[in-house]
Automatic annotation (TrEMBL):
CDD domains: PBP2_LTTR_like_6 (cd08423)
Protein name, entry field: LysR family transcriptional regulator
Keyword Transcription: yes
Gene3D superfamilies found in the cross-reference section: Periplasmic binding protein-like II, Winged helix-like DNA-binding domain superfamily/Winged helix DNA-binding domain
Length: 308
């Protein structure tokens, strides 16, 4: 029977994900020569060629991709075994590390943690604020157990390493200066603001979300000012420096802006989709499952408020 070495298979999977031997070595805290030696030994054990030269780089062979396709099933089963063992040993106790993008922390994570503290006081939830893309890097590296992010920046549902759980479709409203000609206009559409000066981040998720929403409405937004924090964005809107799309989940940052009018858009209401992800198989662990359930409950409560 062919000998399967889990550690070496993990190295091969990391090479597939990272692209180079050097990047793989850095991710696994190994030397490049050790990575190459381990993969050479794995190829001998399996009796197939796993790598081939491509210029100065190497690429995985079809045989390597076949091996990894089956290995992903093994990795998922090991995650399930770890999760089940953790539940057996800890019972109601345990620790779940959560990485979440900034606006989701007060809107979803804090209500979920509050509910869990009441229902499962022995469950320790550790929260780490991280931007959308970073959350999945932390999850892949094993530094967190659950990542809360935006669907546009999450791995696809076909990625065998993760299980994704949709949580919330968060509407985007328009922030206008008080007294703006469109502040009281009925049936406001995003396209009505095509000629406005816009305020959004210079890069990253919010820049992409704003640009995509405006392009879907038929125009490219003119970026007059760049900011990533809602306090700064809304202060500039209040000063009449431009308009901005604001997620409804960022309600805490919107409070107290008497000089800002928040308008719900009509038929072309854009939304951003919030998802949670775990390493595939880990969702069956009792502690992670409880956190996911609490997040779904917090998301459902927020959607009910948004619709009322």
């Amino acid at each position: 029977m062919t000998e399967w070495d889990i550690k070496k298979l993990q190295i091969l999977r990391t090479l597939r994900d990272r692209g180079t031997v050097t990047a793989t070595a850095e991710a696994l805290l190994m030397t490049p020569s050790a990575v190459s030696q381990q993969l050479t030994n794995l190829a001998k054990q399996l009796g197939v060629r796993l790598l081939e030269a491509q210029g100065r780089r190497v690429r995985l062979t079809d045989a390597a991709h076949l091996v990894l396709r089956h290995a992903e099933v093994v990795f998922a089963q090991l995650e399930r075994a770890d999760a089940e063992l953790d539940g057996y040993l800890r019972g109601e106790a345990g620790q779940v590390r959560v990485a979440a993008f900034p606006t989701s922390v007060p809107a979803l994570v804090v209500p979920a943690v509050r509910q869990l503290r009441s229902a499962h006081p022995g469950l320790d939830v550790r929260v780490r604020e991280a931007e959308a893309a970073e959350a999945y890097e932390l999850l892949t590296a094993g530094e967190v157990d659950l990542a809360l992010s935006l669907a546009a920046h999450a791995p696809t549902a076909r990625d065998p390493k993760f299980s994704r759980v949709p949580l919330l479709a968060d509407p985007l409203d328009v922030a206008l200066p008080a007294g703006h000609p469109q502040a009281e206009a009925p049936g406001l559409r995003l396209a009505d603001l095509a000629a406005e000066s816009w305020i959004f981040g210079g890069s990253g998720p919010w820049s992409e979300i704003t640009t995509a929403a405006c392009e879907a409405a038929g125009f490219v937004p003119e970026q007059a000012h760049s900011a990533s924090g809602w306090t700064a964005i809304l202060a500039m809107v209040e000063a009449g420096m431009g308009v901005a799309l604001v997620p409804r989940m960022a309600s805490a940052e919107r409070r107290g802006g008497a000089g800002v009018v928040m308008r719900v858009l009509a038929a072309d209401q854009p939304r951003r989709h919030v998802v949670a992800a775990v390493r595939r198989g880990a969702e069956e662990g009792p502690a992670v499952a409880r956190v996911l359930a609490a997040l779904r409950q917090a998301a459902a409560a927020r959607e009910t408020v948004q619709q009322s």
